[in-house]
Write a structure and sequence with these properties.
With 158 residues, the chain is an alpha+beta fold. The protein has two domains: 30 residues; 112 residues, Sandwich (Immunoglobulin-like). It has a four-stranded antiparallel beta sheet, with no helix packed on it. A four-stranded antiparallel beta sheet has the order 4-3-7-8. Strand 3 and strand 4 form a beta hairpin. The model has no long low-confidence stretch (mean pLDDT 89).
Length: 158
């Protein structure tokens, strides 16, 4: 006859240590991976940005009065197009655009996006090749009168 194994205090203690040991090991791996993949700060000197936030609100109000719109599309893995229109739906031409494209999960993949006008309010930025996945495009368009338009868009590269 087989004698049933008896659960002793030693067994319970070993199971308890094994459970918490595995839990702490997995948590250590997750914490290490998260700290390596995202540093936690997206803007340098964030405190100073916060002090000037009323200026940001005033700029947003001025931008809303302009009524400009930006339509962002990805054309493959090497080109992004932005179409600008005014409040009446007319194409905006002659804009000076400064922008950058950032991989949301990897802040160190930030690169400048240089746009050139293609006519009818369409501006094109070409890249060597963007990795597939999500990218954030942030930029500023300025017309000849000095009117500014800030735009952001999530771009999916397939």
């Amino acid at each position: 006859m087989n004698k049933a194994r008896e659960l002793t205090g030693r067994h319970v203690l070993i199971m308890l240590f094994a459970f918490f040991g595995v839990m702490f090991a997995v948590n250590a791996v997750f914490v290490t991976m998260s700290l390596k993949s995202f540093p936690g700060e997206t803007a340098e000197k964030s405190y100073l940005h916060g002090l000037n936030y009323n200026d940001v609100l005033a700029e947003r109000a001025a931008q809303a009065q302009l009524g400009w719109r930006a339509q962002v599309t990805a054309a493959g893995s090497d080109q992004i197009e932005v179409s600008f229109s005014d409040a009446n739906g007319l194409a905006l031409t002659g804009l000076a655009i400064t922008s950058e494209i950032i991989r949301p999960a990897h802040a160190n993949t930030r690169q400048e996006a240089v746009f050139s006008e293609n006519g009818d309010g369409v501006y094109i930025a070409r890249f060597r090749s963007l990795a597939t996945g999500a990218w954030d495009l942030a930029g500023e368009a300025v017309d000849g009168n000095g009117d500014k338009f800030l735009f952001t868009a999530r771009v999916l590269i397939e």
